[in-house]
Amino acid sequence: MTEGRQCATRRAVLAGLAGTGAALALPVLAGARTGAHVAVIGGGFGGATAARYLRRGAPDLRVTLIEPAERFYTCPFSNLYLGGLRDWDSIGHGYDGLRAAGVEVIHARAEAVDTAARRLRLAGGAELAWDRLVIAPGIDLRWNALEGYDAAAAEIAPHAWKAGPQTQLLRRQMEAMEDGGTFVMVIPGGAYRCPPGPYERAGMVAHYLKTRKPRSKILLLDAKDRFSKQPLFMQGWQALYGDMIEWVGLDDDGQVVRVDAARRAVETAFGTIHRADVLNVIPPQMAGGIAADAGLTDASGWVPVDPATFAARQAEGVHVVGDAALASPMPKSGFCANAQGKVAAAAILADLAGQAPPEASFANTCYSMIAPDYAISVAGVYRVEGGAVAEVAGGTSPLEADAGFRAAEARHAAGWYAAISADIWGA
Amino acid sequence: MTFRSLSCLAALALPAAAAQALTPADVAVLAGPCAACHGPDGHSPGAIPAIAGRAEEHLATRMFAFRDGQDPAATVMPRLMKGYDEAQIRALAKWFAEGRQ
């Protein structure tokens, strides 16, 4: 072993993962890395990113991505589909790009994870052994946490909070609604996927209604008193849609406690009944079910992680990224899931090479469209300080910006979507 | 084992935060989120400017200008760049100027 090879950079060392013959500075590692297999459950923003970046860092590493869907439809930009700015196909992504990057993709549902034996079972019974596991299960909806709202109710009053048939159902209901109808959205408190998402949706639905059914109304019933980018949203709604959108917060009896899907009616904490022509219920949420089945969640329903690596606190060799992880103050956004996927991949590669993980660094930029040429954003940079995530920089679009600024952010939103899609799925 | 190889091992074993110099793996992680808007390795497929292969000094100058509020047309970049110190900005400029290794 030469001195020069010992002093190889981490990148060069990582490139030698899985036994391409690069020198290993620490003999104890020899063999540990050879033939390692990393399994990734979930092919969305977090999981597909982790899979791709594991292969980037270690082109000989065996990486298996397990994702039931052959085409993944993104929650980001699904509001633009509702508003008529995007067609359905444009927010779907296949897995050929990941296969081309050397990721083995299995279209099946992972049904069980044994973190002690380091095995997982697929629907149909096939089992896979893994050395490191990434779980990126996204969210599950807490059925009946809101009285009356279960899977059957969602077929009448869609949540559309997982992009797919629910999103298309909501769009069809908007198309079927008479001019002068009321679109009611129920918005949760607590931690949920995409904090500004409900409010972007309000603007996109308003855009659709203004251009097709201008006498209609949108009523937002919110379990919170404040929300992400609130002054910017309210300014944009007023400027673009007048009084079409009405937001009712917690203090004004906005919290819905009961859903009667058959009647398209909801009841608030103080007993007010609101009737809807289209009823969109965004219910309380938790980490995707397999995370709880694997014993990784805490009482909150989400997964505690070490933010330096996104290793799950409650199992060895398992990393959990994306919406399922407890990573506040990072929001549950696709951008953050992508950033976390990269940090987890780098940590796994370092770990397999017997090294300390590189220093974690994350960023987020969430654009919210209010009209085709009007968007607002929130951005942040995150590091790990004292074992917790800390926001070290960031902020929202200025409230006093002109139309040119809003239009530029709308163009950047489209640019972001193209870029992150290419970064994850290859197209 | 020579002194030099020992120091290399020590550097690898230290937490990155404790080291003054950013390792290539640190810079790769630091550069990770840039791709979400500027495209894979800075090759933008859309409306946001590509940064791959641009001159190192140009990239550094632009990032410092964003950070110091000297670009009135900028949108998110001033908010983001305040989270990066000079060494990090110079490392990112070098990373994207050189392209993927």
Outline:
The complex is a heterodimer of chains A (427) and B (101). Chain A is α/β, with parallel strands linked by helices and 427 residues long.
Describe the structure in your own words.
The complex is a heterodimer of chains A (427) and B (101). Chain A has twelve helices and 25 strands. Chain A has 427 residues and is α/β, with parallel strands linked by helices. Chain A has two domains: 3-140 and 285-425, FAD/NAD(P)-binding domain, CATH 3.50.50.60; 143-281, FAD/NAD(P)-binding domain (3-Layer(bba) Sandwich). In chain A, strand 14 (256-260) and strand 15 form a beta hairpin. The longest helix of chain A has 22 residues, at 403-424. Chain A is globular, with a radius of gyration of 23 Å. The two termini of chain A are 42 Å apart. The relative contact order of chain A is 0.15. Chain B has one domain (3-97): Cytochrome c-like domain (Cytochrome Bc1 Complex, Chain D, domain 2, Orthogonal Bundle). Chain B contains six helices and no strands. Chain B has helices at 3-13, 24-31, 35-38, 56-67, 77-81, 86-98. The radius of gyration of chain B is 16 Å and the shape is globular. Chains A and B meet through helix 2, helix 11, strand 23, strand 24 and strand 25 of A and helix 1, helix 2, helix 3 and helix 5 of B.
Fold blueprint:
The complex is a heterodimer of chains A (427) and B (101).
Chain A (H helix, E strand, L loop, with lengths): L2 H4 L3 H6 L21 E5 L3 H13 L4 E5 L5 E2 L4 H6 L8 E2 L2 H5 L3 E3 L3 E5 L4 E4 L4 E3 L2 E4 L3 E3 L9 H4 L10 H12 L5 E6 L9 H16 L4 E6 L7 H12 L3 E4 L7 E5 L4 E4 L4 E3 L2 E4 L3 E3 L1 H5 L9 E4 L4 E2 L5 E3 L4 E2 L7 H19 L9 E10 L2 E12 L2 E9 L6 H22 L3
Parallel strand pairs in A: 1-2, 1-9, 2-5, 9-21, 11-12, 11-17, 12-13, 19-22
Antiparallel strand pairs in A: 3-4, 6-7, 7-8, 10-18, 14-15, 15-16, 19-20, 23-24, 24-25
Chain B lengths: L2 H11 L10 H8 L3 H4 L17 H12 L9 H5 L4 H13 L3
Helix pairs in contact in B: 2-6, 4-6
CATH architecture of the largest domain in chain A: 3-Layer(bba) Sandwich
Total number of strands of chain B: 0
The number of distinct structural domains of chain A comes to 2
Q: Regions of chain A with pLDDT < 50 over 5+ consecutive residues?
A: 1-32
The CATH class name of chain B reads: Mainly Alpha
- From the alpha-carbon coordinates, what is the Rg of chain A to the nearest angstrom? 23 Å
- Contiguous low-pLDDT stretches of chain B (5 residues minimum) are 1-19
Helix content of chain B: 40-55%
What is the overall pLDDT average of chain B?
Answer: 85
Task: Name the shape of chain A in a single word.
Answer: globular
Strand order in the largest sheet of chain A: 5-2-1-9-21
- CATH fourth-tier homologous superfamily of chain B: Cytochrome c-like domain
Instruction: Please name the two chains that share the biggest interface, counting residues whose Cβ lies under 8 Å from a Cβ on the partner chain.
Output: A-B, 53 and 43 residues
* Name of the CATH first level of the largest domain in chain A: Alpha Beta
Under CATH, the topology of the largest domain in chain A can be stated as FAD/NAD(P)-binding domain
Give, in order, the helices and strands of chain B. Answer: HHHHHH
Domain Flavocytochrome c sulphide dehydrogenase flavin-binding (chain A): 358-425
InterPro entries (chain A): FAD/NAD-bd_sf, FAD/NAD-binding_dom, FAD/NAD-linked_Rdtase_dimer_sf, FCSD_central, FlavoCytC_S_DH_flav-bd, FlavoCytC_S_DH_flav-bd_sf, SQRD, TAT_signal
Domain Sulfide dehydrogenase [flavocytochrome c] flavoprotein chain central (chain A): 167-283
Domain FAD/NAD(P)-binding (chain A): 37-149
